[in-house]
Design a protein that fits this description.
There is one protein chain. Strands 1, 2, 3, 4, 5 and 6 form a six-stranded mixed beta sheet that branches. This protein has helices at 76-98, 122-137, 144-159, 165-169, 205-218, 222-243, 246-262, 268-279, 305-314, and strands at 19-31, 42-59, 67-72, 105-112, 176-179, 182-185, 193-198, 284-288, 295-300, 319-324. Helix 2 crosses helix 3. The chain has two domains: 7-179, Ribosomal Protein S5, domain 2; 188-324, Alpha-Beta Plaits (2-Layer Sandwich). By secondary structure, it is an alpha+beta fold. Keywords: ATP-binding, Cytoplasm, Kinase, Lipid biosynthesis, Lipid metabolism, Magnesium, Nucleotide-binding, Transferase. Its EC number is 2.7.1.36.
Length: 333
């Protein structure tokens, strides 16, 4: 049997029986990266334009209880290769949770449009899509908490200690606030667009985490100052977002970028994107994600978005995507 290349390739009466289908999407962190693992709040944004679809089917080939992974689309190939151990543990966790141990061999295929290593949640989205495909295959209705726990199994293998922000946001339909172990939808009182710009370079989350940790170890009180500053900026941004103050929200984004850049977590390419966005009329801009590469995120008014996008491409952006605040997704520009 050849796995389908789209959902439309699976007959309706076979969905959830011979082939299970699962989906997830990308995410971007607005503020709070790195500090969130030390108890600070974080704000995260779903990016529905960038998707992962997974298919799972039972196979007569291969050892019972085993699993094989394949991928379609060039962006997903390195992602699946890097995440394969985490995905295998995820499948083991799924079978233990559902009592499906010892069943037929599983073939799992993943197709992704999320560029890997950019801080956009590619590994978490891949894991969530696989969980949902397995649940669909077995006709199981997993709770969101059960899905989250399984995704975290893969995330902790891929990234070490994972905050859970990615695992929650890749399945969310609205921007989220993470605070004190609780998650809730953000109140949005602002109009505007976020523009995400890909620097073209893969980020290095584990290296960034180690760099920050080493910096904290060298200077007494450094961690506390970093977390305190991050917490204040994130809370002020949350209030500005809810209160309809886009200029204030934008300034907090830029100040958070300065915090991360001061810790050595940005790069010249990302700094150039931030500077270009601000020069083109963006209200604020920062690196998003783990750092040492990856993407910048920009807040702009809708009427300034074309100019901001042109400025980002002129500054070296490999590609850009726009995400309206509280509205439907737009096509990549």
């Amino acid at each position: 049997m050849t796995l389908p290349t789209s959902v439309e390739g699976v007959p309706e009466d076979r969905r959830g029986v011979s082939v299970g289908i699962g989906r997830a999407h990308a995410k971007a962190i607005l503020l709070g990266e790195h500090a969130v693992v030390y108890g600070a709040p974080a704000l995260a944004l779903p990016v529905p334009q960038l998707t992962v679809t997974a298919w799972a089917r039972r196979s007569g080939r291969g050892a019972p209880g085993g699993v094989s992974f394949t991928s379609a689309g060039s962006p997903s190939r390195p992602m699946v290769a890097q995440a394969s151990e985490g995905l295998r543990r995820l499948v083991a966790g799924f079978t233990a949770l559902t009592g499906a141990d010892g069943g037929p061999h599983l073939d799992v295929a993943v197709d992704a449009t999320i560029p890997p290593g950019r801080g956009l949640g590619s590994s978490a989205a891949c894991a969530r899509a696989v969980v949902r495909a397995l649940a669909d295959l077995h006709r199981l209705d997993l709770t969101e908490d059960e899905t989250f726990d399984l995704v975290q199994t893969a995330e902790n293998v891929a990234h070490g200690r994972s905050s859970g922000v990615d695992a929650r946001t890749v399945g969310a339909s609205a921007p989220l606030l993470f605070r004190g172990g609780e998650v809730q939808e953000l109140s949005i009182g602002c109009d505007g667009l976020f523009v995400i710009a890909d620097s073209g370079a893969m980020g290095r989350t584990k290296d960034a985490v180690a760099l920050l940790r080493d910096g904290f170890a060298r200077e007494d009180g450094a961690r506390e100052r970093f977390v305190r500053r991050a917490s204040r900026l994130t809370e002020e941004a949350r209030q500005a977002l809810a209160g309809g103050r886009p200029e204030e929200l934008g300034s907090r984004l830029t100040h958070y970028h300065d915090l991360l850049r001061g810790a050595g977590l940005s790069t010249g390419a990302v700094d150039a994107l931030v500077d270009a966005a601000l020069a083109a009329g963006g209200l604020g801009a920062k690196i998003t994600g783990g750092g040492l590469g990856g993407c910048a995120i920009v807040l702009t008014r809708p009427d300034r978005a074309p100019e901001v996008v042109r400025g980002l491409h002129a500054a070296g952006a490999a590609q850009t995507w726009t995400v309206p605040l509280g509205g439907p997704a737009e096509d990549a520009l």
